[in-house]
Amino acid sequence: MPWFLWALLFFAFAAQIGFSRSVLPPPEAKAEELHAPPGDAALRLSALGEPPVLARLLMLSLQGYDNQKGVSVPLRNLDYAVVGEWLERIVALDERAEYPHFSAAKIYGVVNDDNRRRLMIEWVWRQFVKAPNERWEWMAFATNLAHYVLKDDKLALAMAVELREKTDPEKVPAWTRQLEIFFRENANEYEAAAEMLSRQLLDGEITDPHEFVFAYDRLEGMLEEMTKRGEIQSREHLARELRKLESLREKYLAQFEELQKGN
Do 141 and 106 contact (CB within 8 A), yes or no? Predict the structure, then answer.
């Protein structure tokens, strides 16, 4: 090619760059809106016979949505109603998956926005009811979130009641079923709290020696407080209540001592 054509090409290229930089607006990274997920039927068709695999891929995609190309989206800016829909579709594809519940409770549920927190807490509650003995951990976390972070004692107590009523004491830790007791104690409902804790002890729900001794001492403290408040009219009544559990306490103290010797 003649030299003047090379020169013309060079100047044309330089002019194009100058025009782009001076006239056209600079490229701007924009966050894409999180759209509602497809229906269950469409997703199952797309799974090609492997719904759990698709569930994991969708979970990864959802989790990475706050880090888009060229822009970071704060979690509190996401539409949590849509986030809940995506999580529901993912759980529908793989009911044994735990990560959607973990994400709802411990990632999306801890943003600094009470309305969004509440949406995730309620989502965890709805999912818990479908499989209480498998999803108690996330329900317990969400219950404490409602009590200590949202400061919604009514919601937290209702969730704690569900934890106690819907779970099997042989399949979940005793402390999970005692959240209602502690919430009622904090609300000065000592009689109800003491009755529930006494029943758990007598029914053998608490089998760990350490937990039994702790629960017994806590029950004793409740009854002492009830006596001070005039809810138990005499020390004899208090002693009678504690005698029901004294033999069990001695049994578990002996087990506790054996464990200490073994250690």
Answer: yes
Q: Which residues pair with 72 in a beta bridge?
A: 67
pTM of the model: 0.75
In angstroms, what CA-CA distances link 169 with 61, 132, 177, 178? Answer: 37, 11, 8, 11
Task: State the 10-residue block means of pLDDT for the chain, 263 residues long.
Answer: 58 60 50 78 86 91 69 73 94 94 93 93 96 96 95 94 93 90 89 85 80 84 82 63 70 69 67
Between CA 130 and CA 125 the distance in angstroms is 9
- Tokens (6 digits) for 246: 């004294």
Which amino acid belongs to residue 21?
A: R
Q: What is the pLDDT of residue 183?
A: 93
